[in-house]
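Structure in, sequence out. Go:
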């Protein structure tokens, strides 16, 4: 019997971690090692070969996980998100950059030890962008990977730093050291837009107004949106996000022309989401009271992203566009008119 590959999933209990572990477990090809600051719920823990409650900053635990489980790939999802990060920027820096460094360093050592490249999948974000004003945002429309990289949140600054660290560990690490090895970290980052899941209501992100609006409308509760009606950012459903993680993970190294890819799906304004919800759900009752700080972040994020490189290099092809996302996935799953979610 051939040996199964072991993969480490950090932030295992989060929104993406939950969806990813379900998919990886369905494929039954990997030993899944889960790590999260909070204990995993028993059902999710049951899908992992082993799960650990601990910190990605832990310099004893993380190397032990690589060694004990012969980790061959990393999905590094643990992070403090944009709004939470802004409430505690120093802790956000520690977790988001320090935690990533700890993982990259151990992945580099593992590459030398196993004599194999270690794939390292990293969910970055559109918060790495910083459009200077609304007219530039409108004019720029679909932003390309190398443009407008002037983040104004600690979260965006952290994620952009990690993208550079990942590139460094993949292409230049130990260039002047005797420890230089042909085996290296193979870092692959996806710049995700705001993600919406039919199974978990997020907290701590600045794109949360979309899922909050949806969940309130389904529950027949009024919702006061913290963003202006004309706010437009790119969005994607959680099943499409998980699918894109698995696609970039499976792509051969030679096919990747970049280490960091934009991924998009659809990009409605808050008002367009409101109109769709009001059309479909009788309980939708949405009003607006702008939170200036959160709005300022949203105004620096692009209206949409150019993800043509992801399409060409590893076949990014989200299943859900705007109407399909709500009509075929989110609303049916949340109202119980669909028994099985589309991908999970
Ligand atoms: N959800 C989105 O809209 C979105 C968009 C772009 C990028 N991302 C990125 O995707 C990743 C996962 O996002 P998510 O939506 O699942 O977030 P989430 O907040 O639901 O999950 C993050 C998980 O990380 C864990 N965690 C936090 N600090 C930790 C630490 N120090 N050590 C170990 N675990 C820790 C938390 O307990 C949580 O379970 C993050 O890196 C995030 O930046 C998410």
């Amino acid at each position: 019997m051939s040996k199964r590959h072991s993969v480490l999933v950090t932030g295992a209990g989060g929104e993406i971690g939950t969806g990813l572990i379900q998919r990886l477990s369905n494929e039954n090809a990997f030993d899944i090692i889960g790590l999260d600051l909070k204990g995993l719920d028993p059902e999710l823990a049951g899908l992992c070969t082993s799960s650990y409650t601990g910190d990605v900053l832990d310099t004893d635990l993380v190397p032990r996980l690589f060694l004990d489980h012969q980790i061959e790939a990393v999905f590094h999802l643990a992070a403090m998100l944009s709004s939470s990060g802004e409430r505690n920027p120093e802790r956000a820096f520690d977790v988001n950059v320090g935690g990533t460094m700890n993982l990259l360093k151990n992945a580099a050592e593992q590459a030398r030890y196993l004599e194999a490249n270690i794939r390292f999948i990293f969910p970055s974000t559109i918060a790495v962008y910083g459009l200077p004003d609304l007219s530039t945002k409108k004019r720029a429309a679909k932003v390309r990977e190398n443009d407008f990289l002037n983040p104004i949140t600690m979260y965006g600054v952290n994620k952009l730093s990690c993208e550079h660290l990942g590139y460094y560990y993949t292409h230049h690490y130990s260039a002047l050291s005797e420890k230089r090895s042909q085996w290296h970290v193979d870092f692959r980052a996806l710049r995700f837009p705001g993600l919406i899941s039919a199974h978990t209501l997020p907290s701590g992100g600045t794109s949360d107004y979309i899922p909050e609006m949806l969940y309130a409308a389904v529950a027949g509760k009024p919702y006061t949106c913290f963003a202006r009606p004309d706010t437009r950012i790119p969005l994607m459903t959680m099943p499409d996000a998980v699918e894109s993680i698995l696609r970039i993970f499976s792509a051969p190294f030679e096919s990747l022309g970049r280490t960091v890819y934009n991924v998009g799906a659809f990009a409605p304004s808050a008002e367009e989401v409101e109109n769709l919800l009001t059309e479909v759900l009788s309980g939708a009752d949405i009003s607006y009271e702008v939170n200036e700080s959160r709005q300022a972040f949203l105004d620096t994020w692009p209206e949409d992203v150019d993800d043509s490189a992801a399409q060409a290099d590893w076949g990014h092809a989200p299943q859900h566009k705007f109407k399909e996302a709500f009509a075929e996935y989110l609303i049916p799953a949340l109202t119980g008119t669909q028994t099985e979610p589309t991908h999970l």
